[in-house]
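## tool: complex_structure
## caller: assistant
## args:
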Amino acid sequence: MAAHVASRRQTSRFSLIPAGKLERREALWFWFFISPWVIGFILFTAGPIIASAYLSLTNYAPGKSPQWVGLSNYATLFGDRIFWKSLQVTSYYTLLAVPLGICLSLLLAVLLNQKVPFVGVFRTLYYLPALLGGSVAVALLFSWLLNPQFGIINFIIRFFVGPQGILPVGIVGPRWLQDPNWVIPSYTMLALWGFGGGMLIYLSALQGVPTHLYEAATIDGANRFQQFFKITIPMISPVILFTFITGMIASFQVFTPAYVIAGGTQLGAPAYSSMFYVLYLFLNAFQRYRVGLAAAQAWILFVIIMILTMLMFWASRRYVYYESDEEGSI
Amino acid sequence: MATRTGTRVTPATTAKKGAWASKKRQDQIIRAAATIICLLGLIVILFPLAWMISTALKTRAEVAKFPPVWIPAIPQWDNFRIALTGANPFGRYFMNTMFYAISVMVAEAVSCSFIAYGFARLRAPGKNAIFVLVLATMMLPTWVTLIPQYIMFSKIGWLDSYKPLIVPHWFGSAYLIFLLRQFYRGLPKDYEEAALIDGANYLRIWARIIVPLSLPALGAVTIMSFMFHYQDFAGPLIYINSQINYPLALGLQQFQAPFGGTRFDLLMAASIVTIIPPIIVFFVAQRYFIQGIVVSGVKG
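## result:
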């Protein structure tokens, strides 16, 4: 044990190869343990990233060898109206679904944090939709709920505010998934239905805010709203940033509901209003066999997500509060 | 009690008399309001599921009825039988799904626990940089690596099988490595140090000490993994071609017919059957599940 400690002390902070025998042994064991990840990273991540960069510069159809075409795939995409439409559809969806989802789940977490009875039951039931949110069953369920003729949602609208409704304002339910203007709000509803996942994360973040901060603020005469905006929000801001970034990454890659609701055949219908970015990528890669073009799309998506993530970190640096970072606390 | 309350309020004694009591009152009102809002929200959240069940038990005429009926005159339990025994071999789909989800679950539990131990406990130069790389892969869109992976798997003849969907998981997944590493860092080091002195190597320590100590965290990881792959649609859609190999997610989609011909009663019946297993797993193991989400979310 003594030798163990002594040899540790010799290790220079900056050397790449540990000096002591025990350190070297420990480092070798480290590489042994993470070796599956390293192999997987090379085979299934780094290799494919490079390969897809190469493919994006070629014309490639299954069964033929790739032909070098330079940047022409990118040029094709930038001149493709549907490509821009897919980018617009996805951005609109992200801008709508991600902030709304965060507000809703934060609001609910704050409510549940008020010592509400049966928190456990609420937590479980609110989480249930998030559990099922990505499934085919739920996508199909929403296409049924939002059915213009027989869907229950339009019935409820008609019942309450329709021409002969309780409050006869004469509002007629939209055609939801069949009306290009209502498609994205419809998909947003589907996404928001699963907001319980974010709620769980916020609830535990709220419970981690030290109570003495609130006590001090109460003594200083701060009201509840001031406390919420000056204590709660800053204290949980790293978690908000985290959910914002992961939410954005996920919503840029939304695929299953749009594919399922389109029945796999009329992708993007009606009028390309549900042509999400990844859906168009899929269409090019697996239905039109324009693999090089799809690889270019994938790379553009990669760059967009990277830029947006960095932008968010940069823009948030003044607003996000980190408690003293201890060493290696990534 | 009175004195204790007194001392706590001292700094604010200038405030009007009874401020403490009124704050308590205020708390009660807020709690009641919060409970009511949460209950109303619950109705909104659960109503689609209620409508799903209602539709599944209707006759074909009742489905198309307007205004809609909530409770069918005679519950059509037969819808379930028709939905599950029609042209779609649901039993087969179910077995395929379970095979896929369980294989991935085992692969991820073993590999991620192994890899996470290295990151959590062993010291080596450059470790933090590599861990940042692990985290960075979480941000990577799956679609960037998908096309070359697909070409690679088609070259070695793995299409229309679950191999491309299972084998990569034996090399760990960033999210679960991260989650387990957070957990391992919190375990006491005493046992490991004692075992090292006794001459055990790290592999033995991992198998005999770390794995048994981390069963709750492994529970969270395996359940999350199971849930995700049980419902996975995009993966099988890309790699599985023949109907006999479909998982439930692909099978369910077969119910959709073009031009409004979809039999929603049967579709909803089949949908209910597919979501029952994850719901049961969730209720049985929700403690682990919620713990997993919370750990990963907050430490992000």
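## assistant note: The mean pLDDT of chain B is 85. Chain B has 15 helices and no strands. Handing back to user.
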